[in-house]
What does this fold into?
Amino acid sequence: MADQPSLDDVVAATVVDPGSTHEFRLADRAQRNEELFPDKDQAKDSLKADAQAIDELQDALFAAQCGSLLVVLQGIDTAGKDGTTKAVFKYTSPLGVRVHPFGKPTDIELAHDYLWRVHQVAPRNGHIAVFNRSHYEDVLVVKVRNLAPSEKVEQRYEQINQFEKHLVENGTRVLKLMLHISKEEQGERLQERLDVPKKRWKFNPSDLEDRKLWDDYQDAYETMLRRCSTPWAPWYVVPSDSRSRRAAIAARLVRRELEAMDPQFPETDYRPEQFKID
It folds into this structure.
């Protein structure tokens, strides 16, 4: 598609460079970047093309049963984790894609280390796993809400890095997308959840408490991005004030990961001409 931005352009506009994380400032990243997709219709066309390509690539990955992809979606309330998942994997068979939402840990999960529940659902060969929230909650909400001692939270950045390195070295590619929205846009989306009856189920009064801690969360996200954007699993900051552009950028990045994996349909051990269908 002539109007699609190149994969390299999308990466350059969104990646948190592991080599210069000390210079990274979340405030420098736009929440509505229209340079990649000046026109929303262009973004929708690009999304459709990439979503269809993702379906084909996932079919080959599932057939080959070789390697897997983990897509981590993090973002403050209303950033669009559900919408991004539905848009990017619109055409993809549910046989090879699993979505795992992470909420408040259960008693059993709390009885283990904080990465236990995450490792349980890491994708197996041939599959794509999408984490709607993830292990990063343990350096975000846990940090902001003081749910663990600060020294424990401090240890987790490197523990997470090593956990992801372990996954990568064992055949799982890790793609991490931080959905970046403005406080103004979040306010509009929260109001929409109150105004539109079919969206009211999504509203949680506790979201308003977190909204009061906006600056604290932005600081926590910035620290997370600085500390955990690694050569084996870099972070990408996806402008998310525009739903159509957000989904188009995410789809470009997912497609790039799958193309890098280059899954191939396996050769059969028979010749088709050996068989006759009556």
About this structure: The chain has one domain: 7-262. The chain has a mean pLDDT of 95. The CA atoms of residues 33 and 165 lie 31 Å apart.
